[in-house]
Design a protein that fits this description.
Blueprint: E1 9-10, H1 12-15, E2 16-18, H2 19-25, E3 26-33, H3 42-49, E4 51-52, H4 54-65, H5 74-84, E5 88-93, E6 96-100, H6 103-116, E7 122-126, H7 131-139, E8 144-152, E9 158-173, E10 179-186, E11 194-197, E12 205-212
Parallel strand pairs: 1-8, 4-6
Antiparallel strand pairs: 2-11, 3-9, 5-6, 7-12, 8-9, 8-12, 9-10, 10-11
Helix pairs in contact: 4-5, 5-6
Length: about 210
Amino acid sequence: MNESRGKDPATWDEVLLDVAEVYENYTLVSTNHLQEFISFNEPYIESVTGHYACAVSALLACGAYYNAVDYTDIAGDYMDIWDSTGTTVSSESGGITYGSTTIGNIGPGFVDFCAGKNVSVTQNTDYSPNYNFFTNCIDRGDIAVVHCGIISSDTGERAGHSMAAEGYATLRAYNSGNTVHTLMVFDGWRDTVRYLNFDFDSWTDISGTTFNG
């Protein structure tokens, strides 16, 4: 991919800060977040659906936020989002089917899923968003999805990931005094909030989808 040339290899742990690391190394400059943090970790999703796709997991959290998810049928809703977003099979391993979702399908597919639940939501997708694209969404009480790519240190190829953005925080490092703009995300893998470094200088690409419901 031409857009990937010149980017330094990275791992997701380089761009995602854990809560403990934030408390230990940073002071909080400003923040806002939704009143509840919603997550469905990967082992749980795989156990109930036999499937996993990061964008679908992010949208399941968004659906829960807008009361469009039936907690008695997580598997059914997950696969409905999978279908409505046109998610395709990327690989199969250990009995789990993994999927890939085109960014342009994520917002419209979620709107369609919500409509099927009689929930009215609109979406806006930006392929080169600034930080305020996400903070403005959070400030009005809505949820977003951030889509980003890195050059994987394991493969040397682009690795993409989508995560539900449920808050934001500007942090100042104790040791350097430098500020870091972060999004508070459900990373699709764990239960707990993590802080995505929006200022990371080796993204291959970063885009976003915000909702209004």
